[in-house]
Amino acid sequence: MTANSLFHMFHQEGLMSRGRKAMAAFALVALVATGCAKGSATQESSAAGKTTVKYFTFSAAPDHVTDLDKIVKAFETANPTITVRVETAPYADYFTKLQTAVAGGAAPDTFELNYENFVSYATSGALMDMSAETAKDDLSAYAAKSVEAFKRDGKQFALPASYSAVVLFYNKDLFDKAGVDYPTADWTWDDELAAARKLTAEGVYGDFQPVQFFEFYKTLAQAGGSFFSGDGKQATFDRPEGVAAAKFLLAKPGTVMPTVADIGGTPDFDTNLFKKGKLAMWHNGIWQFAGLKDVPFDWDVVVEPASTKASAVFQNAVAVSATTKNSAAAYKWLRFLTSSEVTAQTRVATSWELPPLADPKAYAGYFEQTPPANRKAILQAVDTATPTPVIARQQEMQDIVTKALERAVSGKSKVEDALREAAKEVTALIK
Amino acid sequence: MTNRLIYAGLTVVGLVMLGPFIWTFLASTTEGGVVSWPLDPSLAAYGRLLDTMPFWRILINSVMVAVVSTALQVVTSAMAAYAFARLRFQGRDAVFVVYLATLMIPMQVLVVPLFIEMKTFDLVDTYAGLIAPTIASAFGVFFLRQAARQVPRELDEAAVMDGAGHIKIFAFVVLPLMRPALATFAIFAFMASWNAFLWPLVILRSPEFMTLPLGLANLHGQFTTEWDVVMAGSVVSVLPILVVYVLAQRHVIASVARTGLK
């Protein structure tokens, strides 16, 4: 077959018209892609006399999107001139997205931040100083400590939005079976370890506390130590208190708790262990309550054992972007979102963390719900909350500490050495 | 006997490759996502998947974006490939090398400048902004240029004798003979768009534009994750690409066989 006849063959088959059709189809698709592309956001903001406030959040998806909707609807009913447009992203990817938007000058009007990230956003100038608004406002509805946590240099850069606390979960049935008394608020580390040893049996682990940064800074505080020196310029967690805290954490894996090898990276290993009734004590957060509703055994919670009480409380806050054009509407929305009755009731009713409010009436009903019976333990945890150590290069610091603990738990280095090296690295990060 | 051994070996390797998919499927039908014996299958996770996100909308988005992006990429890459393979113009090779060099720049580096560019064009949170950066593909140009160069020049010359210009030569001589390469590249482009995460994450805001990888990521909470629902989402999102792949793969093999006969 010659090339010439090949060309004619294609021609005769009517490929030309087919080709044209294909081209036309491409052009059409491209048109559709650009034509119908504008989001409804732009349409809404063009409506007469209406302000659109964008709110970017990580804590709503996947389980509380409809709950947030309820709060938005209530706000819009009370403020008919403001429309709130919610955008969500999963926690793991949220900050990639937010960072790009802020760097690209397209930050959403309002957005959520956890405490660790709040500090770097506030110091980088991405957040609006709310002091002008808060000066005219009465913030006494919030728990004072929470409001204080989101101040920098006397300026209010965010409003507290919610909090969760870490407590000690325990399986009552396993305690009964082993003949061990239930944990109380007076328990110390030694009580916990002694009970854990008695509770550990064939197929049952006595205790579970992950060996990582978040457990370490808390146990460090329980040991009476401090993560940084007074002027905040030096990491001091390698002092004897830090060694004691690390040793307390390291005493568990392989004796009363599964080892890293046992866990093998299985997601939610500890959650499933507890749910199956094979774990007696479990250090975890109150966000687990909802998932434990239907387990076939009795369980309760208590404030974490320690001679000096110190608890981890995770706080989320909401901030206004420094570049927003709707600061008044944005502030109004955040005030409603964080302190309205609708929000408090929605959060309590759906176990969506807790509202950061001072008035115990805001939690009405929360402490009557069971299980667990001892929900008051949360208040004890909040009273003894120890702030998360935060620096600008947060993630690196957390990784350094967690890796040092991992080296120690695997026996690759002595606890003292691992902590000393980590402290040196963290001190270098601060500078 | 040796045949049997080969089959046995291939079966084992095949099962190993299939392992993750089988596990994903089993986990999606198991409460909590932790597979244990005996199996206790339930489709509850699929129901919850449909409840927690506008799944069909997300699926249609993904399909539409992938189809449009693939179609545009194939067209632009094929045209550029023809130009680089057939036309002579000043600085052609230098331009091509620079073009290839852009392959070395990872997306992570480009995200912020690209975002600012899209914002300048007012394309943030639009399908157009999502698709635009994918339209021109350096890899596609490189890949298709190789294929275009393999088409004998004598065919062009014969077409010229028949009075064809570049457009006709491109559309009716070179393009049809590049079909296997086009199909292969189309698969690559489709998969890249289907799996794209970082750029859609950054450029999209409105939930109604969400694509599947974003939807799946949204199933992870700050503190907890329902793994069976995540696995159910993974299963459903793998199915379409599997279909596309199987169909296109047959086409590729057929095209390769046909050109081999020439």
Question: What is the CATH superfamily classification of chain B?
Answer: MetI-like
Strand content of chain A: 5-15%
Shape of chain A: globular
- On the 0 to 100 scale, the average pLDDT of chain A is 86
The biggest beta sheet of chain A, please? 7 strands, mixed
Distance between the termini of chain B: 36 Å
Which fold name is given in CATH as the topology of the largest domain in chain A?
D-Maltodextrin-Binding Protein, domain 2
Number of helices of chain A: 19
Query: What general outline of chain B do the C-alpha atoms trace?
Result: globular
Topology-level CATH name of chain B:
MetI-like fold
Q: Name the beta content range of chain B.
A: under 5%
What order do the helices and strands of chain A follow?
HHHEHEHEHHHEEEHHHHHHEEEHHHHH
Number of strands of chain B: 0
Structural class of chain B: mainly alpha
Distance between the termini of chain A: 76 Å
Feature tags:
heterodimer; A: about 425 residues; alpha+beta; D-Maltodextrin-Binding Protein, domain 2; 2 domains; 19 helices; 9 strands; about 45% helix; globular; B: about 260 residues; mainly alpha; MetI-like fold; 13 helices; MetI-like_sf (chain B); transport (chain B); membrane (chain B); transmembrane (chain B)
